[in-house]
Fold these 4 entries.
Entry 1:
Amino acid sequence: MITIAGAGLAGLACAYELAQRGAQVTVYERGETPGTGSVARFAGGMLAPWCERESAEAEVITLGSRAFGWWAKVTPVHRRGTLVIAPARDRAELIRFARRTTTHRGVDGVEIGELEPALAGRFAQGLFFEQEAHLNPRRALRDLSAKVQQMGVEIRYGTPAPARVALDCTGMAAPLPGLRPVRGEMAILHCPEVEISRALRLLHPRMPLYLVPRGDGYFMIGGTMIESSSDRAITLRSLSDLLSAAFALHPGFAEASVVETGAGLRPAFPDNLPRLSEQGGTLYVNGLYRHGFLLAPAMAEAAARRLLQETSDEDHRERRTA
């Protein structure tokens, strides 16, 4: 029997990989329902390894490339690419972004309008990362919870973990040296008047922002990264920035309803890469930072191999993030 503390993104992903290998798994979760205690519920859900390379290490691409197929077995994945755009005054940001990333092509105003008719005539240049995708984080957590239970995993919701578990996936609650919180804030908007079908990134020198469609006229907008341990509600400054960005994308968002706002503390190590680490006989999967849905599959596979003492051709690569 393998016991796991935490039924958030990392814990459920590890349970899935362990169950795939025939292990008996019990997961303990303080929250009462899937995802309620997970910072992943505030995520954008973008599977965008090539975009993330702009500010992340090359391992993000290497480890994240398997996420598309992994998630497609669990929950709907919308593989419509990522469109990166910037106002004319911020063209230098677009050039810088292009130089730091790969697997994209430049698009002009005409093609931007073809990709997203709602943006026709609004932006003159952009970058299109055609291979990228997005998913709905909250649905993904629910679907993954249901999937692992169908596979025989026992999830004890509303139950604190025992003092000793085989695997700890509790994020900021884990007692790991060097782990720090990076606060992220978001808003969910309802605006049926604007139709956008793929993830958008709006570049700005101070704070690049992203907007991800959730379907039925709902959109998630986020992008803040604040070094803070405060878990208070979203600040007025951040909310103002998010809503201003939405309006800059399309004036129709001025009529949007703000359905929800939220803030969460994402666990990160100094290099902003996830790690497998062992302490006191417990294996920890932590440090997913802002790459949770992208990197959780690879980290879960590595954790399952470690716990079941498997080896693979990729073990030398995984040790670099351990």
Note: The longest strand covers residues 257-268.
Entry 2:
Amino acid sequence: MLCKPNFFALAPVIALPLLACSPSQPKAQPKAELAPKLEPVSATPATPQPTPATDSHTSPRPGPLKTFTDWTVGCDNALRCTLGSLMPEAGDAPDLTINLTREPGPVASGGGQISLALETRNFADAKTRPPAGFAVDGTPVALGDAAALAAAIANAQALTILDANGATLATLSLKGAAAALRYIDAQQSRAGSRDAIVAKGPAPSRAPAPALPVIAAITPSGAPVRLTSAQVAPMRKRGSCDLANFPSGADPALFAPEVHALGGGKSLVLFPCSTGAYNLIGALFIVDGAKITPAQLDAPSGFEETGADSGTPVKSVINGSFKDGVLTSYAKGRGLGDCGVIQSFVWDATRFRLSEQSEMGECRGNIDYITTWRAKIVR
């Protein structure tokens, strides 16, 4: 059994106000082994969209991530795009990182806002010396002016994060920042328009603002089934969830199955199958009366497309949990949590549907993952 990279809870990023803007494919498994990110920054879509009354039955297609030297960038299915700073290939992990996110849609119609998330969870002195401003090649930029910062870093060499006394907290490389911003201009159809950040031109913006797909999800109800030993044994065998996959002397609670009511008499079983240093793989089963079947998902979860074991049809999640009707998976690339995949799934009475996905394909210090897929949940 292949044990994959476990997760840890992180403290919140500093989410700075939205301001009007003036103007490698993610790897299936991140490239290192290492604690996540907060929930990815979620802003309201720029242009309100009508809410469909029924499920749109859209197949999930998370957007790719691309890396430009010391910056990574990606857009989700609604064309919200984010670029994030990375540790240089030869250098120490930064104590502070930043992500800049741009909403879709023309500025003239209320779209195109830019927001900034300043990640302080790795910064030990965040409470006593909080970030208070920036300097881009020595030119001051206000802490809350995300649009000015995006414009400034497009043609600069270094970004310095300052405290209230003007002392340097961190210096970030801007190599690749301009290319990442240009990529966002292209993905949002702003290139050659007045709304572009880098690829400016005279044309009016025709940037689209796609509506989110809709998932009609079931609100959990009822009581979870009480598993018997006669039910547990075949699930353990079918999912290849052998007790030998766990460290000797491990707490028995670590490999005890979790059961959650889904509604309609069905229950979800989250069955621990194997564990590594920071990843716990759990197979998914649905119990409906006397019938037990592997749960189905509409998108690959974690690092693998198959599940707990490539030789079985059982799907799995990594470091999984089920709360308020949402099944989550957090596959960590290494213990630091600066690479991996975070996913949320909801139950539609037949299978689990991907409602959100965020990723970091580079193990280079940034623990603020980039959202690559979103859906609107209607219960």
Note: The longest strand covers residues 266-275.
Entry 3:
Amino acid sequence: MDTLDPLLHQPLRTQIAAFLAGAGEATFTELRQRLEVSDGNLESHLKKLIGAGYVSVRKHSGEGRPQSSYALTPLGREALQGYIAALQRLLPLDNAPVPAPASPLLRPRTQ
């Protein structure tokens, strides 16, 4: 039986990783608004993802306050793909193996 990644098995961390997989990069404010979570809750979960090497942070300044942008790392993308594949293999579909997804969510958006 597949083991689900305990770091990604927490719902908000799964949502953060999935959103970043599709968006490519997002600011703290974009993540907070899109996922509808508090600053403290988002910060706590981002720290865990950053600590595991799943998410990178880039600090930049421009007009106004400095901003932090977050992106899924190659390790994070691989972990998310593995997590999704493990979930799919748990689905009882004809007992046939489920191939890894070729989802556009798991490819970074090009600009």
Note: The first helix runs from residue 11 to 23.
Entry 4:
Amino acid sequence: MNRITIYGDDLDGNGEYPRLGWFDLDSAQHILEEDTRWNGQNMIGVISGMQINRADLYRTSGGRWVEHQDHRPEFNGPNMWRFLTDEQAREWMLKSGGTEAEKALERWFPETPEEQGPNLGGRPVVGPKLETRVDEAVLAKVDAAAKAAGTSRAAWLRDVIEAAVA
């Protein structure tokens, strides 16, 4: 058994780090090693920022997510272990990127959408796009009818089509 004890932060500044729990590394599943990116000088880990080592994501036999970052060889820093929530693990995979992260996301978080980002405006999608060409005189009549109805050309055409096929 390779028991790893995980401690929290010293929030009070009194040198006491609360013990949050432990897990057996030998029975945990290694899920993913972080991907790397070029920072202009070196390849570094996208999660840890480390050049020599990489951060790793594990899933314990009890179903908890654990992140490991070993900064000892690189910065003479700490060997850090921390528990992650499901959402933090999902974000970890998204941020890491790469083929292996995509596979892990598909396995552990299949409901993750293909893309996600801010709404930059524009009209909401009403349905599939329908295109057609009409004579300019007909288009002018359509625009006049839409204006008289106090609606847009697209909304007026949708209403007319729906009424015709109802």
Note: Helices lie at 72-75, 86-96, 99-108, 136-149, 153-165.
